[in-house]
Each structure stands twice: as C-alpha cells, then as structure tokens.
Amino acid sequence: MSDDQTRFLLDSKFDDRVSILIVYPEDPQYSEISGMFESRGHAFFYHEAKMIVMDGAAISQSWFTEDHLDVVHAHELGHFYANHTSGSEEDERQADWIGIQILQHHMRKGAVSRTAIDLHFDEFVERYGIDPHELDEHYQDVFSDSSEISKFLGKQINVESSEFIIRQWKNSFN
Ligand SMILES: [Zn+2]
Q1: What's the gap in Å between 3 CA and the centre of ligand 1?
Q2: Mean pLDDT for back-to-back runs of 10 residues, the chain (174 residues)
Q3: Ligand 1 center–CA 28 separation, angstroms
Q4: Domain around 164
C-alpha cells in the first residue's frame, strides 16, 4: 500500500453485487465510522451502498489472516441476505449462522479454506455455547422464504456436522 492510501475498495469474491471498503485509521473519515466498528465489531454492512465496510486497524493486526477476512466477509453478507439493520444479538447469531453456510458453499467451489470454516465454527461455539448445526432446522425454517439464503442451504450440512462432532470429540482427549 502506498503511504497516502488510507482506504481500499475491493469486489466481494462471494457476491458480485457487493463491494468491500477497507478504511484505515489514517483516513480523514475514520473517526466518523469508528463508532460503528466499536459497536458492530471489525466490520458492518452498509445496505444503501451494498458495501461491507471493514476496519483497517483490525486487518493490520498480525493475527488477522485471509481466513479471518473470509469469516468477517461471510458474516457481513449474512446481514445483507437477512436484511438486518438492528445489530441485535439475535441478528448477530443469525449472521454467524448464515456466514457458516456461505463459507461451506464457497469451500465446495474451492474459494474458501477449511481453516476459515473451523474458525467460524469455533467462534460460534465460543459465543453461543452451541454447535451451529443444532440450529440448522430452526434457521432453515426461519429463512425458508428467503431465496438469498436458501441457495446456500444444502445436504452437506449434515456431513459438516458429523465432522465437527468428531473433531470436538477428538479434542476432548487432548
Ligand atoms: Zn454482525
């Protein structure tokens, strides 16, 4: 990045209607939107512009990898597809659940690594104390009328679920 560049605009690799704007703390407008990062996390979805706005400060952290970027990206698309605007805890849980479906969908197409999905799974369990697949039936019901979301819901969910349970089971012996 050149020294004077404080923001980047990228195309979403998951949805060509959506773009991603990364804004770094050096940007003149950063202070106007940093409050949103504080309340929503590393990013938020700007519905009017179909744009994911990401915090450059988070992306600059040494722990932040491309897998983290994919997780945040998929989560924000979850807000887009579910038309969320409130930032409520239930909206966050829904976006996390949809995000996992999006990552699984794109992993099957080779655009997402297994690590990104594991990361999102572990985050989900840590945040809500529940395997996201336990909510599959519930959310498939909630989103049954949404064409945006139902395209990501497939049979593979059950395979993923059993893999996850086996992984957790193995981890319990470590
Ligand atoms: Zn969110």
Answers
A1: 30
A2: 81 97 96 92 95 96 96 97 92 96 92 95 96 94 89 60 65 64
A3: 24
A4: 66-171
